[in-house]
TrEMBL record:
Protein name per UniProt: Oxidoreductase
Pfam families: GFO_IDH_MocA (PF01408), GFO_IDH_MocA_C3 (PF22725)
PANTHER family: D-GLUCOSIDE 3-DEHYDROGENASE (PTHR43249:SF1), UDP-N-ACETYL-2-AMINO-2-DEOXY-D-GLUCURONATE OXIDASE (PTHR43249)
GFO/IDH/MocA-like oxidoreductase domain ranges (all copies): 134-258
GO terms assigned for molecular function: nucleotide binding
Residue ranges occupied by any Gfo/Idh/MocA-like oxidoreductase N-terminal domain in the UniProt entry: 4-124
Organism: Paenibacillus rhizosphaerae
Amino acid sequence: MSKLRIGVIGMGNMGSDHAKKLNKGIVPEAELTAVSEMDGNRLEDAKTYLQGDIGYFATPDELMDSGLCDAVIIATPHYDHPRLAIMAFTKGLHVLCEKPAGVYTKQVREMNEKARESGRIFGMMFNQRTNPMYRKMHELVHSGELGAIKRVNWIITDWYRSQAYYDSGSWRATWAGEGGGVLINQCPHNIDLLQWICGMPAQVRAFCHEGKWHNIEVEDDVTAYMEFPNGATGVFVTTTADLPGTNRLEITLEMGKLVCENNTLTLHKLGQNEREYCFTTKDGFAKPPVEVSVIETQGDNSQHTGVIASFAKAVLDGTPLIADGEEGINSLMLSNAMHLSSWIGDTVALPIDEDLFLEELNKRIAASKHKVTAGI
């Protein structure tokens, strides 16, 4: 096999973008051979901007059974991600799944089991892991040279969305259609990076404000407090209503502080481990010297095309994935914990009670209002 034959399932915003890039040959290791879309108008539109010998199918089942694909990219509404991935694995296909892995971890756990049983390659579209700044933060934190993490703060409020965005699809911003708001739609990348760089917290207390700034039934404003197994604490703040927004990730460690903001990674490095210094200095007000430097990062920020290329190479040559599909459950576990904490008004330990989460989610699905919109 010289190229991986890929079918794209779901031709909305992300799916059509992936299909166009593959169709243009931007990923040399892969080729677009089929697409599926249940909306007939969208499927017809795809025929106007995609070129070459491509199969067009009204359902994912038809695409998977066509024999045209070795792998699929799943880019459908969130609830369908695990179901379609499981279907693909049972048919012997490799899977690259858009974020999030699903809406609730119990469903995703089954997907991960099927992936292992199938022996197929399973990747997640966590394209922010290609960003050299986040890769460098991961390297510095995991190397141990800066000591243990003491505090994590991420203010990520540059996800601004207008009411028109939420009105653009009947499934958007509903519990029944999307399964959540900013945590499940915009922030899976940030939450994935948080756990990838810093590890999973042990417990979470969150406040998720539903429809605070928009006419929607799901959360559009979140503040979460986290405690990690080593005693470190963290705060995660996000919204889709701030203008101008902020994107500042700050990690304080025993040997200094990393700050990622405005496309710049800055290291404030102490001359001595703070924990050592605290208990050995004889001066109650003195501080060890601090060297401040901008960290130069290397590598191509290839985003979605980089993840697709990595996925294709994993299938063709066995090279490592940028994000293994089974890791998708980690960020979902964390966002589920934030939702559950807010719903029950209490601190939630991780791993969460998956049955309780699903019970609470189902209450909201049952009360979810159907909306009719003109798709964009």
